[in-house]
Amino acid sequence: MMNFTLLKHEMLATIKLFSIILAVLMLYIISIVYMYNPEMSNTLNKLTETMPELMSAFGMSNIGNSLIEFLSTYLYGFLLLVLPLVFIIMLANKLVIGYIDNGSMAYLIATPNTRFKIVFTQAFFLVASISVLLTATTLIAIIFSGILFPNELDLSAFLTLNIGLFFLHFAISGYCFLVSCSSKDLRTSYAYSTGIPILFYLIQALSNMGGSLEKLKYFTIYSLFTPEKLMTQDSSSFWMLGALFLIGLLCYMLAIRVFVTRDLYL
């Protein structure tokens, strides 16, 4: 079902982008873990009091009393939502519409491989790349939390939180892959695969500010990712993860079907 030659090529072609995103994430994760101390918490509390609306918009209004709550506030409200999103958008567009746009898809289709085998390989590589990226960030946070603050991180809650994060990015990547498979050119693909997720994030940021804006959360996919419920393993968080998985799976299935049946003007 997969073309391992193409898979190996994508691994080598993506390693630079992957390394840059991972390095930036490592830097911020280590910095956030290091910031978990009473003196810094007081500073962050004062910052929150100074700009309450802005901090709430990015999900940073509640510092919490434990390491897991602290990490949830400062990593999962912005950093681990946006940086993996950048990686997903760039990779999803490169894997399909990028080949079509530069003419390389003609060479791939000319090989004995079927369209299904080609697009399934690209879809698998996208999901695997996201999985490896998030697994690496999870291990980094666990290792440095253990070094700096031994036995303070609730591993069960933290792993559940990161599983939820994967399902969120799985759903978003499915959408981006669908756009890449169905767009007529690279510019259009980037416009939709970038614009819609960012619009959803901005809507989520507005809903976080509370008041009458809170109802906006029903119009964004990000409302299905709820760190506070995942950490407590609230039953409602699991059907939300199921919804994210279903969205992602349907998008990938539709993307594969669209690519296999579409007319390619190569």
From TrEMBL:
This protein's UniProt keywords: Membrane, Transmembrane, Transmembrane helix
Species of origin: Lysinibacillus sphaericus
Bilayer-spanning residue ranges: 12-36, 74-97, 118-149, 155-178, 190-207, 238-260
Cleavable signal peptide: none
GO MF entries: ABC-type transporter activity
Protein name: ABC transporter permease
GO CC annotation terms, alphabetical: plasma membrane
A Pfam entry, by short name: ABC2_membrane_2
